[in-house]
Please model this.
Amino acid sequence: MKETYRELQQEVSKRGFGSCCHNLIEKLFFEAARVLSNSEKQDTVSKVLGKSYFTFARKYKSRPINEALYWEDRDNVAAVLRAILTGRRRTLEAEAITRGIYTVTMTCCAAIDVNSSGDKKTPGTIFEWLCAAIMTAALEVEPCRSLAVLNLDLETKLPTDFIFDLGREKPKFHLPVKTSTRERIIQVWAHQRVLDGVYGVGRFLAMPVILTETKLGSAKNEVVEICLPLQWRLYQMHIASLWNVCYLDAPSAYLSLDRKFPRVAVSTIGDMLAANGRLDELLEAHGLKPK
Amino acid sequence: MKETYRELQQEVSKRGFGSCCHNLIEKLFFEAARVLSNSEKQDTVSKVLGKSYFTFARKYKSRPINEALYWEDRDNVAAVLRAILTGRRRTLEAEAITRGIYTVTMTCCAAIDVNSSGDKKTPGTIFEWLCAAIMTAALEVEPCRSLAVLNLDLETKLPTDFIFDLGREKPKFHLPVKTSTRERIIQVWAHQRVLDGVYGVGRFLAMPVILTETKLGSAKNEVVEICLPLQWRLYQMHIASLWNVCYLDAPSAYLSLDRKFPRVAVSTIGDMLAANGRLDELLEAHGLKPK
Model:
């Protein structure tokens, strides 16, 4: 995996998220799957209502994996991934999109987890690249990672998460990518506030993509999900408004905010990307109709 | 140190930051100093203009320590600490306050660093308790760690950093304590924004206390200081206004923001706490004149 990771790193920095990057992500996924086939699958005690989790164990235990979302059939997963990355996301069911992206991500993360203790950066970076590649395919534009600030005598570059700019007088997306957030999620609202302040409210649409909020307590082998829905509502009311929060393994405590007033829009990544999903709704509203 | 740490933990949770807590902090400091007297002092290559750093090394290397701020005379340090904790901060020079608090903090942190790799929580917690004890002495009121939110049909408790409430129609201080911040500092501005939104602008004064922004690159044994002054200015203009940012080892890139327009107020902890310093100025302006 290490060699492919390095190739992917070079490819992304040189040429971005095009077809060479797609091939390398697929290669990385199959290499990670091979690592896991030499690992032992172990049950956990799930404290998350209605969800079961397992881990892979080798030298170390992997992060917990949602059984219902994890697809054993690697070839099917690769086919779904390829469809998403080559602009055919609308041909897939929302659930297939979520499960496909979840399985690719978790396979890569778990394969790193089982061989190294405490490496959080590599899995996080792979997840970032995957999400950037998916959105590059969905929006047909490459992202940038900083914005110019011109504000009287203050002239600087603001480093940002991925920005997808659909052009003059069209939506601009801000895509923070996180493997989990807990109390650190407030950073996403704060960055949106800075973008609102510098460029005007409504100019950038924040669409954070988050893997999961679960955590394995190693002492008791218990999986817990850490959610702060009341804080989210305060952030949405008092800091800034996020356009839509996307999850791969969506906590029900956050999904329920999607149906409350005042609303925080939360969805699975499948409900975002499927035909007539949230992204299509928005694109249609701005005359960027899906083909 | 472990036993004293546990006693301190119990004392803080049961009785707060009174004289028993002071005694335990002093005990912890002398125990930490003993650990370090069995460690080797090593030079580093400082990339921070005008500052020299060393480390303590035993099983592991400690974080880098600013030579000019670190006081070898333990008894003197303990005397300064005791003066601050017993309400006699105004009898001390600003520099003595900064050096005293810096030495106590760094001694405790380094003593943990040299015996354990990757334990960031224990040093951070000790630093939090120390700062809370100092401010409890300075403001003569114990802190709380959450606030009630009553907002139409939304009723909840907002977890916060330390809050020092001087009473009805008097200043309320919000005291986030961090051993270093980098890009995570945006959380402090975001929390201030939530407090401004929920309770009204100007109701809470944010006074973050930060140890340092230095970092030891172990490969080259180099000490670097990571600062983002332009981002700080954007945060102060677009998210919320922090009352005063306090440092123990203040980066000059941030101190210079104190003299720019628009200003971000930044000072050493000594300049905050000394007689006629920033805290006294504020207390005086609100009729809470220093005795």
About this structure: The CA atoms of residues 76 and 100 of chain A lie 8 Å apart. Chain A has a mean pLDDT of 95.
